[in-house]
Amino acid sequence: MKIVGIIAEYNPFHNGHHLQIQEIRRRFPDAGIVVAMSGGFTQRGDVSILDKWQRAEAAVRHGASLVLELPAVFSTRSAQYFAEGGVRLLDRLGIVDFLAFGSECVDLEILSHFANEIDTNQQSDTLKTGLQKGGSYAAAITNAADPNAVIRQPNVILAVEYLRAIRRFHANFSPLPLLRFSAGHHDTEIPSEKVYSVASASAIRSALANGNEYNALHTVPEDVAAVLSAALEHGYTNTKNLFRPLLAKLLTVSAKNLRTILGVNEGIEYRIRRAALSAHSWEEIIEAVHSKRFPRTRVCRLLLHILLGLQKETANNFDVAGPLYARVLTFDDTGRQMLRAVRNLATIPVITKLSRFLPARALDSGHLSTAQEMLAFDLRATALASLTSTPVGYPPANADFLISPIYLPK
User: What is the pLDDT of residue 231?
Assistant: First the structure.
């Protein structure tokens, strides 16, 4: 049995994701599909519209075999770290044959050329210079490769990062680029044609936020639409609900301590603290802080890292170590077979019962292993995500200890 890996957010799981899995099954009918999926928060620093168990269940109901959580210390970072975390997690399972990813360009020769170009000394220096000048990682990596190239497409950037990570960490699987279906990654509007059933996750979230539920729900599978409709009754999660916790943090922390947080540099800690003195909302803080050197997405990630307490030194240690566990969220019968193989071949532990790996009492001990410390950030992310719901605490802040991996027989 071939095993195909996917790195995803599924925020939410939509028809385009389903089509991608169907394409994998067309090529490998009997394949096992394992997904490394972000948890409570996404790469953009926003809370996921549905919790990680709901999104993982949707993936397995529509063709995935096994869904693992990509640790928050990688899933809430820029494309490079997101890709590296996902690639290293899948590789450490010891069973993956291919990494499948959607891209606007599926010519592996072209993608590999961009990846090689970026990693040459000259282009690497260009990338470092671009990052030093500020702006987004995406802009810097685009200019380092070719300012006018197809790499400007967001999914091509991720594709190139996957290839770089595969080569850098000598991952024992092959890349499998798949043509992205129709909708652009950052499209913010759903096409008006009623028969058009594929839209980007960004467009779906935007439509739901603006009350356009009808257009949004016909772009996701029926069971996902039902979950989204149920969530609408008490209000979707909203990162803006973290404003008060953020304000409390910013008004009581010193600039010196802020400077230890990942992403805080160039004096931005002072701008953030000034914004906290007068802002009336999460959005006002972002508006006051963002600039060409600090784009909105970067600021949003930074605010999340402040709330998580993710320090530069800690993040660097995690980057060196890579993912140190495989935490199971959802699986089916094929996934169960895959887990048996993983337990024999993986170089990291498989977590199905959280309390065995990280007892609640250990969190207060101050003596955590690097793996336990990494997992503790996942728990913090779940707790923070619970504050974004209406009512607060849905799912509860300690949901990681309460919810077991979900088995879906087929």
Answer: 87
In this structure, the dihedral spanned by the alpha carbons of residues 386, 44, 111 and 141, taken in order and rounded to 10 degrees, is: -150
Rounded to whole angstroms, the Cα distance separating 132 from 143 reads 13
Q: Tell me the CA end-to-end span of the chain in Å, nearest whole number.
A: 17
Beta strands at 406-407 and 32-38: parallel, antiparallel or unpaired? unpaired
| Total domains, the chain | 1
* Beta-sheet pairing, 406-407 with 174-179: unpaired
Q: How far, in Å, CA of 106 to CA of 177, rounded?
A: 5
CA distance 268 to 250: 13
Does the residue 18 lie in any domain?
no
Q: In angstroms, rounded to a whole number, what is the distance separating the alpha carbons of residues 319 and 316? A: 5
Confirm whether 401 is domain-assigned: no
Q: How far apart are CA 144 and CA 129, in angstroms?
A: 9
Provide the residue range defining the domain that includes 277.
239-312
Tell me if residue 159 falls in helix, strand or coil: helix
Over residues 196-209, the pLDDT tens digits come to: 588 889 999 999 88
Kindly list the distances between the CA atom of residue 118 and the CA atoms of 80, 159, 253, in Å, as whole numbers in the listed order.
12, 13, 38
Q: Is residue 288 part of a domain?
A: yes
Q: What is the pTM of this model?
A: 0.92
Asked if residue 25 lies in contact with residue 31, where contact means CB atoms within 8 angstroms, the answer is yes
Residue 11's identity, in one-letter code, is N
Backbone φ and ψ of 176, nearest 5° = -135, 85
* Residue 217 domain-assigned (yes or no): no
R_g of the chain, CA atoms, integer Å: 20
